[in-house]
Design brief:
The protein is an alpha+beta fold and 370 residues long. Helix content is 17%, strand content 42%. The N and C termini lie far apart (66 Å).
Length: 370
Amino acid sequence: MKATIERATLLKGLSHVQSVVERRNTIPILSNVLIEATAEGGLKLMATDLDLQINETIAAAVDQPGSTTVSAHTLFDIARKLPEGSQVSLSAAEGKMTIMAGRAKFQLGTLPRDDFPVIAEGELPVSFELPAETLKQIIDKTRFAISTEETRYYLNGIFWHVSEDPLPVLKAAATDGHRLARVTMPRPDGAESMPDIIIPRKCIAELRKLLDEIDGSVGVSMSPTKIRFDLGQALLTSKLIDGTFPDYSRVIPTGNDKILKIDPRSFEEGVDRVSTIATEKTRAVKMALDRDKIILSVSSPENGTAAEEVPGDYTALGFEIGFNSRYLLDILGQLDGDTIEVHLADAAAPTLIRENDKSAALYVLMPMRV
């Protein structure tokens, strides 16, 4: 195999594929990227961790078609340190890869292409398109609520499902048991027979990085066990989480009749300021609601106390409720607009937060005892 490629093109392609590769691997070939120089011209790069696979095609001048596998992180670090604007020559033969650019020359050990594992894709019967901006919105407004608890593995991703509500919609939800985030959007054409799926956290993270470079639409294809995102030059294929997502609709409150309307930015800044002295362990902030004012306070045995009054539109009976300040800030950070609605019931019931009844996203936060 022999090919010449611009450093910037190589670096961009490698930056996408190397982040799929785990730093520590018990199987040596999983540390490698598969590089294939095609007769038509161009390099195909591929990396996998056996659950997630990325394929990327980049432009290159190919002198001799062929393929090999080489350490993904080492090659990426080399490309990063090569002179800007340089032409990089890659050639592989007899278990070695030679990389040359300017006066620099590197030789790396390779492993045979035939040993490289590929996720068998099989049939992906459901396919539709989503605008890249819509996909970004789905991810950004839900992923902070993905659970990191490995024992509840079925919460370690974003749940996608379609329903008639009463119009056909696609819903994406994530929860860690303390908070829930859900986005609803019109169902895309082709998604009618879509299975309920849970997309793993790592796939979501890699997809979000790739979306920053996409303007148009993204092709989405899936079966009950796998999903593939077609982003033009890059193809991301992932196994889905094999589990059942809980019926989250049961925790979305419908009868919370105490409604607070408040500016999300002043609310967020107030919570952020008073939580400065909250202890790492509890992060509890107390909200005392009274007519048209909310007093936020934190009391910490080690650090002292803090309080701030935030204006808001509230006419129901006054009461006090506590929240984890970090969870509350995560939600407020996703809300735009001049006012948001906080639907409350009492100090022990789940609280619903949204921009208004027409907004695509809604959030549920469990209170804390304070």
